[in-house]
Write a structure and sequence with these properties.
single chain, alpha/beta, seven-stranded mixed β-sheet, three-stranded parallel β-sheet, 21% helix
């Protein structure tokens, strides 16, 4: 966020989809930064962290590993567990719903709608089972994991054919694939996508990418 020039010191909310380290491991270092940074010296509004039940206990375990006292900030840090299929306000005027996904016991996708009716759906990690396509139906932007190109050694992630099946079924206005494993490095993304006739623009996620919806 700092490299992209974003106002990270005033971040309002964080969404944690599940407890694998590549999805939750940055939370403690982030709060270590906010505790000492000049960018948060005048902050008083709380930081709200949404995620599955058990997130607060996991964070406290990280915090207690070296008595970092990460909750002792200049502002309140609020952990808010969410229940699937129940609406909650992730920001004023921005409504969200968590959707259970078949990845880990606690994993969820999230559907976000703003006051103007624009919608974003983020799958986080998932496999091809479940109701993700229904949750993303007609979304303005559908961000979907696509760890593998073709073959996959585990069933906890998607390959390209599975991702494209979900995209075609959901029929979003725009889709973005992310969570690429190294086998994607030498693949022509656009050529691969064209072979599936997805029915909408499909973007390849990259650091610093800005998308208007």
């Amino acid at each position: 966020m700092a490299e992209e020039g974003l106002d990270w010191g005033n971040l309002d909310a964080v969404w944690i989809s599940h407890f694998h380290l590549d999805h939750v491991g940055g939370l403690a270092p982030f709060l270590a930064g906010t505790k000492h940074a000049a960018e948060t010296e005048g902050r008083t509004k709380p930081l709200r962290i949404f995620g599955p039940a058990g997130l607060e206990s996991l964070f406290d375990a990280f915090d207690g590993a070296n008595n970092y006292r990460l909750r002792q900030q200049r502002f309140d840090v609020e952990f808010i567990p969410v229940d699937p299929r129940k609406r909650f306000a992730i920001l004023p005027g921005v409504e969200a719903v968590a959707v259970k996904t078949p990845h880990t016991d606690e994993s969820h996708a999230i559907h976000i709608r703003d006051a103007d009716g624009r919608t974003l759906v983020y799958s986080a990690d998932t496999n091809a089972a479940g109701t993700l396509a229904a949750a993303a139906c007609g979304a303005d932007l559908f961000i979907l994991e696509c760890a593998y190109v073709e073959n996959k050694p585990v069933d906890k992630h998607l390959n390209l054919a599975e991702s494209m099946f979900i995209v075609r079924k959901a029929a979003p206005k725009m889709a973005m694939l992310t969570h690429f494993y190294p086998e994607w490095d030498d693949v022509d993304f656009d050529e691969k996508i064209a072979g599936f006739s997805p029915g909408c623009e499909v973007l390849q996620a990259s650091d610093g990418l800005v998308v208007d919806i």
